[in-house]
Amino acid sequence: MDEFMQAAIAEARLGLQEGGIPIGSVLVKEGQIVGRGHNRRVQQNNPILHAEIDCLQNAGRIRRYQGTVLYSTLMPCHLCAGAVVQFGIKTVIVGESKTFLGTQDFMESQGVEVVDLDLAECKQLMHDFIEKNPLLWNEDIGDL
Fold first, then answer.
1. Hey, is 103 helix, strand or coil?
2. Measured on CA atoms in the order 125, 30, 105, 47, is the torsion positive or negative?
3. What gap in Å lies between CA 108 and CA 20, rounded to an integer?
4. Computed from CA positions of residues 56, 24, 100, 132, in that sequence, does the dihedral angle turn out positive or negative?
5. pLDDT tens per residue across span 110-124
6. SS3 of 90, please?
7. Do residues 79 and 98 lie in contact, with contact meaning Cβ atoms separated by under 8 Å?
8. Which of 52, 61, 91, 99 has CB 3.0 to 4.6 Å from 80, enough for a Cys bridge?
9. DSSP codes joined into one string, 109-144
C-alpha cells in the first residue's frame, strides 16, 4: 500500500474519531497531495459532504485536474463519480468495493481508470462501522 492510500485511510479514521462515517480521500497531483478529506455528512449536517467531495473542496481551485489521481477508501457513489468525470480526473484508486459497489462501470465508461486494491484494512474499517451503525450507513447510501 502506498503513502497516498495510507493518507486516505488516515482521513477515514479521522472521520470516525469525529463521529462520522469512516471514508477518506486524497487528491494527488505530480506526486504531491493537493487535497484531502473525509466523509463529514454527520459532522457538518451536510448530505453531500462525502469524502471525495470534501477532498476536492479542500484542494481548492487547482486549475487543471489533468494528471491527478483520486484515492478513496471506498468505491465512489454516483455523486462522487460525477465529480470525477466533471473535473476530468482520469485515475481513481480505491481501497475496496465489497462494502459498496459504487459506480466503477460508470466511471470506466467515461474513460476513467479505476483500480480496486481490495484492502482488508478498508473492508474491516467499514465492516466494524456498519455493524455498530447500520441505520447511519443506510442513510449514507440512500437505502432507508
1. coil
2. positive
3. 29
4. negative
5. 999 999 999 999 999
6. coil
7. no
8. 52
9. HTT-EEEE---HHHHHHHHHHHHH-HHHHHHHTT--
Model confidence, pTM: 0.95
DSSP string, 40-76: -HHHHT-TT--HHHHHHHHH---S--TT-EEEESS--
β-sheet bridge partners, residue 39: none
11 is catalytic: no
Cell numbers placing 56: 476536492
Out of 3, 18, 52, 113, pick the active-site residue. 52
Question: At 33, phi and psi to the nearest 5?
Answer: -75, 120
Q: For residues 14 and 50, is the Cβ–Cβ distance under 8 A?
A: no
The Cα 37–Cα 14 span in angstroms is 9
Q: Which cell goes with 135? A: 441505520
3-state SS class at 26: strand
Residue type, 61: R
9-65 confidence digits (pLDDT tens): 999 999 999 999 999 999 999 999 999 999 999 999 999 999 999 999 999 999 889
